[in-house]
UniProtKB/TrEMBL annotation:
Organism: Candidatus Nealsonbacteria bacterium CG10_big_fil_rev_8_21_14_0_10_37_25
Record-given protein name: Squalene cyclase C-terminal domain-containing protein
Top-rank lineage group of the source organism: Bacteria
Length: 322
């Protein structure tokens, strides 16, 4: 996608520095850090062990051939497998975390997709996922076993029937487009068309657009129905040329536009902005991407933002060649 050799060199150098940051900061057991915070500014944030963000980092790094990426990927996959429960189940908090929560389809789907992408065997969880739908064939977030109903009663009472668009988009990423998932495509497309709020875990619309575009790029073509609406809405977040808010917001926006094959001048402006904002250690600033299980906490990290920026730069630099 890039013809200018100067900017290409700058991007390649930036990606290399970002990979060094991730390599140096990956935890010894393979996890990439997730930080939790009680405020949306991520002030006073603290480490909160979860496999979820690691799956995002691996997605952003996919197709890169650097030796350090391969080493990080192997370590991260070992970590994800170590957190698997019988039946291909993952929970938001890891076994290293004292907090407990029921398994959820967001974690299960994103992690399963990454493992399959890397040709890694894991327990078959297809039927488990399909069994966690409501009467409209839309996916519920949490999988509640009979033995856990009492323990998680507060969470169950509040959100047991809520259908989250982003969670369903991530299920689509894993299950793909087929008759079983057509109702999800229709549900998400309708919500976007009508500009309806449809995610309590991802209050930022740019997160929704990114997840939808990611599923679309991975052959869920029905989600391309609202391509023009998503592109127009994403561009409306632009504060000044190429800047869509925080570093994380800008990375989400650029990835969304690139995933939908948009090639306007905003893309190059955004890449140049991120090149200038890279920190000395190779990272970009943290912002929250999602809300964790009730009671609400905000979640993000420098590692997550950095991975998403790498994804945007990689997609801009190599386009469809990857």
């Amino acid at each position: 996608m890039v013809n200018n050799s100067s900017i290409s060199n700058n991007i390649e150098n930036s990606i290399s520095r970002a990979i060094d940051f991730l390599y140096q900061n990956q935890l010894p057991w393979g996890e990439f850090k997730t930080l939790a915070c009680w405020n949306s500014f991520m002030l006073g944030s603290y480490f909160d062990s979860t496999p979820f963000v690691t799956s995002f980092v691996l997605y952003s790094l996919k197709d890169l051939e650097q030796k350090k990426v391969k080493i990080m990927t192997e370590k991260a996959i070992s970590f994800l497998l170590s957190e698997q429960e019988r039946g291909g189940i993952w929970r938001f908090w890891t076994s290293k975390n004292k907090k407990r929560v029921p398994p959820d389809l967001d974690d299960i789907s994103t992690i399963s997709f990454i493992l399959r992408l890397n040709a890694v065997n894991f327990d078959d969880n297809l039927q488990l996922i399909l069994n966690n739908r409501n009467q409209d064939k839309l996916f519920l977030t949490f999988i509640i076993s009979k033995g856990e109903k009492y323990h998680f009663a507060r969470l169950i009472d509040k959100f047991k029937d809520y259908i989250d668009c982003v969670v369903n988009a991530n299920v689509l990423l894993y299950l793909g487009q087929n008759p079983e998932t057509f109702p999800i495509c229709s549900f998400i497309n309708q919500a976007i068309k009508l500009n309806q709020p449809c995610s309590i875990y991802y209050p930022n619309k740019l997160a929704l657009f990114y997840m939808v575009s990611r599923a679309f790029k991975n052959n869920v073509t029905n989600l391309g129905e609202n391509r023009d609406i998503i592109i127009k809405s994403t561009l409306s977040y632009q504060k000044k040329p190429g800047v869509f808010g925080s570093h994380l917001d800008t990375a989400l926006a650029l990835n969304t536009l690139l995933n939908f094959d948009y090639s306007g001048k905003e893309i190059t402006a955004g890449i140049n902005y991120l090149l200038k904002r890279q920190l000395a250690d190779g990272s970009w600033k943290k912002s929250f991407l999602f809300l964790g299980p009730f009671p609400w906490r905000y979640y993000g990290s420098e590692e997550l933002t950095t991975a998403l920026v790498i994804e945007a730069m990689k997609n801009y630099l190599y386009g469809k060649d990857l």
